[in-house]
């Protein structure tokens, strides 16, 4: 036999499940993510040491997405959950893809970090913002696993965390002092506005798929797949293009190695002498 045999080798474990057609789409998304990962990794290696931070974060995001889409395309990483809304009067179950939430648990904080590193936000605000993105993902996962109307309580908590992300991205962070002045600020507005818009689309898809069960698993895969491709590779391409010619010393990054701090201390001592 030839062709995509993933659904046959790894049989679905729910009534409403992935089909071969959707698996084909997921393999295409996996291939796209993997190619973008390899390209980003190559781009990172070609850059001088000390100027790879944004590229290496992007590579981690794309590798995580590649692994998640490999799992989903293989019909792995899902668990059956009884649906709340039953259109046919029966008692069906639906595949809930926990591997997708593992992907978001890793990627959403890193995507926000890519943007916020260029701002003048204090470390405490950045950590709080990253935590709120984790709250958003966890609420989505727990809500998806709950079969009763209580799932919408988690949906509300998640949307509240999303509002915090919007506040930081669109109001709080832009009011700070940016590294390298106007060049980074202009790039930030583009990247932050794009990311803020993409983040609001995920709860809409969740409400139609895991929440209200009004779209099929195949439609869910196509919808989330498009969102992930736009939120990860395309967004990261915007970020990396914006910082390609920025002097990294303007960001004030330090490696944290003892030798670097020792060298800096010696230099300050020599200047004071």
TrEMBL record:
It is a multi-pass membrane protein. InterPro entries: Arc/bac/fun_rhodopsins, Yro2-like_7TM. It comes from the Eukaryota. Belongs to the archaeal/bacterial/fungal opsin family. CDD domains: 7tm_YRO2_fungal-like. The lineage of its organism: Eukaryota, Fungi, Dikarya, Basidiomycota, Agaricomycotina. The chain crosses the membrane at residues 25-46, 101-119, 126-146, 152-169, 189-209, 221-241. This is Heat shock protein 30. Keywords: Membrane, Stress response, Transmembrane, Transmembrane helix. It is found in: Membrane. SMART domains: Bac_rhodopsin. It holds the Pfam family Bac_rhodopsin.
